[in-house]
Amino acid sequence: MNGLLTGFATIGSIVALGWLLAHIRMMDESAQHLLSRLAFYVASPALLVTVLADTDISDVLSAPLLASIGSVLVVGVAQILLARLVWKRNAAETTIGAFSAAYVNAGNLGLPIAGYVLGDAALIAPMLLIQLLLMQPLGLTVLDIATSEGPHSWRTIVRRPLTNPLLIGSAIGVLLSVLDLSLPAPVQDPLTLVAGMAIPAMLIAYGISLRLGPLPGRGTHAPEVAVIVLLKVVMQPLVAFLLARYALDLDQAGVLAVTVIAALPTAQNIFVHASRYGTGVLLARDSIFVSTILSVPALLVIAAVLV
């Protein structure tokens, strides 16, 4: 579990740095927005190119893919129904809520946990690619349409994903992987440097928000956050476990991997999406905060039961 604790400690220290910078007034809300925009438009697309280009797409075509898809669908649909029918959220807020409930921290937590705790970094590939190639394009398209003004013809709906920087980065990365191509060093080296800004920028912006915004857990969205965290930390790994164990009949290592990955907390980039589109910012922020804290005991329980 050393890799697990190290991963959480690393993330926590960078978030704390953002909080401190805001506390001593070195950075303010404008800096938070700047970092979020930098991550969304520049660093994250570069990161997606580098990550997906180095990922064997064939790794996703495996039995764990079905368990991951099932856990995402069950949790995502449950949150969408609750958001629309119980909390009466609009389409954009509903999308951020669904992201918060089902989009796991597969990058800066999932990769090290898969590598150091589960013993194989490739185990994160099915969930990572589901999120980057299916969930993110669909969700960002909904956000683009829901937060923009004017008529939405079918041409507009088709064209919007093609202009989203995150989707462009994902497409380039997948193309490089499928064609087994490598970028020349004059392109790859600066791209890698820019990609390195993505996760720190997200985490520092998140830390600034924790200091400048209302305390997590307060406000009218608190009940929704509680349900989202319950879905994320309890329901999603439970569904993944049941599918892996009883529907797909995976071995013990496969069941453990699928369950642990599903129990990872909400990804920090959901806060970046919420900030970019100006909707559900506090909902995303608090869901990330609470799920990150509670996922530690959840992961320890899963390890104790399944190992």
What does this entry look like structurally?
The protein is an all-alpha fold and 307 residues long. It contains 14 helices and no strands. The longest helix is centred in the last third of the chain and has 26 residues, at 222-247. The termini are close together.
Which features does this protein show?
307 residues, mainly alpha, 0% strand, globular
Give the helix/strand layout.
Layout lengths: L1 H22 L5 H25 L9 H23 L5 H12 L3 H11 L8 H22 L7 H9 L2 H14 L6 H11 L2 H15 L9 H26 L4 H11 L6 H9 L3 H26 L1
Judged by helices, strands and strand pairing, the structural class is mainly alpha
- Residue stretches low in confidence (pLDDT < 50, at least 5 long) are none
Strand proportion: under 5%
Number of strands: 0
Please estimate the helix content. Answer: over 70%
Round the mean pLDDT to the nearest integer and report it: 87
Strand and helix order: HHHHHHHHHHHHHH
Our count of helices gives 14
Radius of gyration: 18 Å
Distance between the termini: 12 Å
Largest sheet: none
Shape: globular
Short overview:
By secondary structure, the protein is mainly α. 77% of the residues lie in helices and 0% in strands. Helix 4 runs antiparallel to helix 6 (125-146).
